Amino acid sequence: MPKPKGRLTTPLVRDGGALRPASWDEALDRAAAGFAAARATDASTSFGIFSCSKASNEMNFLAQKFARQVMGTNNIDSCNRT
Q: To bridge 47 with a disulfide, which of 17, 43, 61, 65 should be the other Cys (CB 3.0-4.6 Å)?
């Protein structure tokens, strides 16, 4: 099956302003480090989640649980009002 044109097939990470291909392990490690840094600096003001009204109730529930219990923030919003 041909790959759709213009679709990413590998993660990209930023090195000094430029994007470069990376392994999934490296990309996930960087994402985890970013979450840890947000928690360390006060996630209540440095982290937020924007969920989608088209997602299931279960997915939105997990998003708010992650924000509140793991990240320690109440900064949660969705596009339900639009």
A: 43
